[in-house]
């Protein structure tokens, strides 16, 4: 594979053509108000893991429409005082998996909240949260579920779950709510950007090779799934291109980035066909907070920086969380 997108010097100034809906803020304010009409009801039940250096809790909280969402909450063993918290969102197709897979941030001395992904968790890690909402005909996957209207689109539910996950994490007595960071890779990076635009008092945001950004370009520049799901749907539903684009605009990471207020560390890979670098730079260049940086991996595909990006986050995040 070779670099296929715009040259790096053009990426650094590239702007998306995605048109922001006039009622974008009202749509999301109403959506979150409806979710908050339900009790958060966050429950943290001790989980037996066999691990000696961390304590793990099996979490259930109310997400979109009060529907139950699962998660893991992991803290260093013996924690007695509130800690900064890292809330993590997961990549496409995966669920929360097993608790011993989530040791990085607790090992760094932070509380760590991992949100399960409704309806997913059968691709690369198991999940425990169903998506009980039905859908009109859609292409297999999640990208076109409910795409006929923003109110029914799958990611309305998932982004709402994510905001509520931050609220659930902050509700734990061993969390310092004023020091909250959000992170995730790929789909998790896209969710991270949505939360960055919807939760205004975060202290750090770390979207890694983020998905769900710059839909107008993403859906036409790459044939790789998951974006290709949208093309396959429109290949059959030929008259719904405008309708689909209007729905997707409410979920575009570019528009959430424009509302973000927390320092951010992005990453992208110049050979990434899953989340093309121009779509990542579209969100990065729109990101409203001036304190932002992006790690660029010249010869990598969607794995991005992998452990090198984790190392970059471990250098960058503690200074933001510990102040």
Task: Please summarize what this structure is.
With 323 residues, this protein is α/β, with parallel strands linked by helices. It is built from eleven helices and nine strands. It starts with 7 loop residues before the first helix and ends with a helix.
Architecture overview:
The protein is of the alpha/beta class. The protein has helices at 8-11, 24-36, 104-107, 154-170, 187-198, 215-221, 227-236, 241-248, 253-257, 277-286, 307-322; strands spanning 43-47, 54-62, 68-76, 83-89, 111-115, 175-185, 204-208, 264-269, 292-297. The chain has a 9-stranded mixed beta sheet, sandwiched between helices. Helix 5 links the parallel strand 6 and strand 7. The N and C termini lie far apart (41 Å). The mean pLDDT is 97.
Task: Please render the helix and strand layout as text.
Blueprint: H1 8-11, H2 24-36, E1 43-47, E2 54-62, E3 68-76, E4 83-89, H3 104-107, E5 111-115, H4 154-170, E6 175-185, H5 187-198, E7 204-208, H6 215-221, H7 227-236, H8 241-248, H9 253-257, E8 264-269, H10 277-286, E9 292-297, H11 307-322
Parallel strand pairs: 4-5, 4-6, 6-7, 7-8, 8-9
Antiparallel strand pairs: 1-2, 2-3, 3-5
| SSE string, helices as H and strands as E | HHEEEEHEHEHEHHHHEHEH
Protein structure class: alpha/beta
> How much of the sequence is in beta strands?
15-25%
Rg, please? 19 Å
Give the biggest beta sheet. Answer: 9 strands, mixed
The tally of strands reads 9
Average pLDDT number: 97
Low-pLDDT runs of 5+ residues are none
Strand order of the largest sheet: 1-2-3-5-4-6-7-8-9
- CA-CA gap between termini: 41 Å
Shape designation: globular
Percent helix:
25-40%
Specify the number of helices.
11
């Amino acid at each position: 594979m070779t670099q296929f997108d715009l040259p790096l010097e053009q990426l650094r100034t590239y702007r998306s053509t995605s048109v922001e809906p006039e009622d974008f803020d009202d749509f999301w304010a109403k959506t979150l108000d409806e979710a908050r009409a339900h009790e958060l009801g966050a429950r943290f039940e001790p989980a037996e893991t066999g691990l000696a250096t961390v304590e793990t809790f099996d979490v259930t909280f109310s997400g979109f429409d009060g529907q139950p969402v699962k998660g893991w909450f992991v803290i260093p063993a013996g924690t007695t005082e509130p800690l900064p918290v890292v809330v993590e969102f997961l990549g496409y197709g995966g669920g929360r998996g097993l608790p011993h897979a989530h040791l990085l941030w607790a090992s760094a001395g932070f509380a760590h909240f991992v949100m399960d992904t409704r309806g997913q968790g059968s691709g690369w890690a198991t999940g425990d949260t169903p998506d009980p909402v039905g859908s009109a005909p859609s292409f297999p996957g999640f990208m076109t579920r409910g795409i006929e209207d923003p109110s029914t689109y799958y990611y309305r539910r998932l982004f709402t779950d994510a905001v509520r996950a931050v609220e659930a994490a902050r509700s734990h007595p061993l969390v310092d709510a004023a020091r909250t960071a959000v992170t995730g890779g790929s789909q998790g990076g896209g969710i991270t950007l949505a939360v960055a635009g919807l939760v205004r008092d975060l202290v750090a945001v770390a979207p890694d090779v983020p998905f769900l950004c710059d839909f107008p370009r993403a859906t036409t520049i790459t044939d790789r799934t998951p974006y290709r799901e949208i093309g396959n749907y429109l290949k059959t539903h030929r008259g719904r291109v405008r309708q689909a684009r209007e729905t997707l605009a409410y979920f575009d990471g570019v528009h959430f980035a424009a509302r973000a207020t927390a320092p951010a560390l992005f990453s992208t890979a110049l050979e990434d066909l899953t989340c093309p670098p121009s779509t990542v730079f579209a969100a990065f260049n729109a990101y409203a907070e001036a304190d932002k940086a992006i790690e660029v991996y010249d010869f990598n595909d969607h794995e991005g920086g992998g452990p090198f990006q984790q190392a970059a986050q471990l250098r960058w995040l503690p200074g933001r969380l510990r102040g």
